Amino acid sequence: MDKGGGSSNNIKADDASLETGGGQHHHLDHLLFRQVLRITLLCTVIVVSCLVLYHSAYPFQFLPSSFYKPASSARGGNLSSLGKEELKLETVLKKAAMGNKTVIITTLNEAWAAPNSIFDIFLESFRIGKQTQRLLNHLVIVALDQKAYSRCLALHPHCYSLTTDGIDFSGEAYFMTGDYLKMMWRRIDFLHSVLELGYDFVFTDADIMWFQDPFPHFYPDADFQIACDNFWGNSYDLNNRPNGGFNYVKSSNRTVDFYKFWYTSSEAYPGLHDQDVLNKIKYDPFIKNIGLQIRFLDTAYFGGFCEPSKDFNLVCTMHANCCFGLESKVHDLRVMLQDWRNFMALPADQRASQPSSWSVPQNCSISNFHPPETQKTNAEQGGNN
Ligand SMILES: *[C@@H]1O[C@H](CO)[C@@H](O)[C@H](O)[C@H]1NC(C)=O
Ligand SMILES: *[C@@H]1O[C@H](CO)[C@@H](O)[C@H](O)[C@H]1NC(C)=O
Ligand SMILES: *[C@@H]1O[C@H](CO)[C@@H](O)[C@H](O)[C@H]1NC(C)=O
Ligand SMILES: *[C@@H]1O[C@H](CO)[C@@H](O)[C@H](O)[C@H]1NC(C)=O
Q1: How many angstroms does the Cα of residue 155 sit away from the middle of ligand 1?
Q2: Looking at the domain assignment, is residue 343 inside a domain?
Q3: Is 102 in the pocket of ligand 2 (CB under 6 A)?
C-alpha cells in the first residue's frame, strides 16, 4: 500500500512534468528537444551524486543494488538522501546491538510517547522485570513523528526517527484509517531494511510488558517466530492466530525475501493491514519455496489479554491485545505492572509454590465492547497496536 502510494506519487509527478512538456511541444519542436536534454542532464546529475554519496558512506562494503529503499524516499524521489538514511539507521543499530547483531525494536508515535502513557509504562516493565533491565541497552525506539522522537531522546539512548513524507502519524485517531494502515506497512518496510543490514531483531509493540528475558524461550532453529493472540498448542501449526506485535526474526536471505514478499503482498490485499495479510500469505507456496521456517510462540511465555500467560514463573511478555482504546489500555497495563510487583515482592519459595493471577483485563475486557462482526477484528487490532 505504502509502496504503491509512493510510486504512484512518483508517476503523478512524472505525468505532471510530461504534461507541461506536452503543452509546449506543438508550439516548437526545438523546445521539446531542449526539455529532453535538460531532463537527461538532470538525471545524470542525480545518478552521479547518488553514486558519490553511496560510496563515501560505504567505501568498503558490498551492498546489493536493491539496498534499503524506504517508501519515503521513493515518494519524494530524493535519491541523494538515501545514503544518509541508511547510514543513520546503521549507526543507531550498531550502537544498540548485542554482540551477535541482535536488537530489540519498538515504534512510537506522539500519543503513545506522551508522559504517563504507554512509553513510560513500557520502560517501567523492563526495570521491574526479572533480568530485563539490561535489555534496555539493546532497545531501539523508532519514532514516527517529531514529538515521539524528542520524548525518546529525553528518556532513552537509542532513538531513530522514521519519517514518511506527507503523513502525520502523531495522533491516536489514526486507528484503521488510511494513515494507520500506511504506518503499519511502513513498519514492515522498515524491518525489511533492518534485516537487509544484517541485524536480527525482536520487534515488540510498546504495549507489551517485558517481565522476563524472552531469549531463552525462542526456538533456536526458526527464521521467523511470532507471538499469538490464540495459540492452539503446536508451534508449527499455521492455524495459530499470530499477532504482529511481537516477533523474533533472524536476518538471512530467506527473511529478507519474506519481508519483501509480505510488504509487496499489501498490493494484492488492499485495505488489509500487515497482520491480516500475514494470515493470508502464511499458507502461500512462496514461503515453502524459500524454505522459511515459521514458528508460533506459546502464550504460556508470550501472553496477552486475548490469552493470558497463566504462570507468573513462566511469563516473559504480556500484550495489551484484545483491548480497545488508549485510556483503557494505559489503565489495565498499570494494574498489570502492579500485579507483577506484588508477585516479585513475595518470598522466593512462595513465588514458586503459590500461584498468582492477573487482575486484568478490566477496562480492556472486550466483553465491554460489542462491535458488529466485520469491525470486530479491527477493534482487536486496535488493541494490538
Ligand atoms: C534531498 O535530501 C538532502 C539531504 O537530506 C537535502 O539536503 C535536500 O534539500 C533534499 N532535496 C530536496 C529537493 O528535497
Ligand atoms: C544473542 O545474544 C543474546 C544475549 O546474549 C542471546 O540471548 C541470544 O540468544 C543470542 N542470539 C543468537 C542468535 O545467538
Ligand atoms: C544470499 O543471496 C546473495 C545474493 O543473491 C548470495 O550471493 C548469497 O550467497 C546468499 N547467501 C546465503 C547465505 O545464501
Ligand atoms: C475504567 O472502567 C471504570 C469502570 O467501568 C471506569 O469508571 C473508569 O473511568 C475507566 N477508566 C479508564 C481509564 O478508562
Answers
A1: 29
A2: yes
A3: yes
Average pLDDT over residues 200-211: 98
Beta-carbon contacts of 183 under 8 Å, excluding residues fewer than 6 positions away, are: 107, 109, 144, 164, 167, 169, 174
The C-alpha atoms of residue 136 and residue 127 are separated, in whole angstroms, by 9
* 135 touches ligand 2 (CB under 6 Å): no
Considering only residues 101 and 185, tell me which one the structure prediction assigns the higher pLDDT: 101
Provide the number of structural domains found in the chain: 1
| pLDDT band (50, 70, 90) for residue 4 | very low
Ligand nearest to the CA of 196: 3
Degrees to nearest 5, angle at CA 291 with 275 and 90: 65
Determine the structural domain holding residue 107 and report its residue range. Answer: 97-384
CATH of the domain at 309: 3.90.550.10
Q: Between these two residues, 172 and 305, which has the higher pLDDT value?
A: 305
What is this structure's pTM?
0.75
Ligand 2 binding pocket includes 219 (Cβ within 6 Å): no
Is 77's C-beta closer than 6 angstroms to any atom of ligand 1?
no
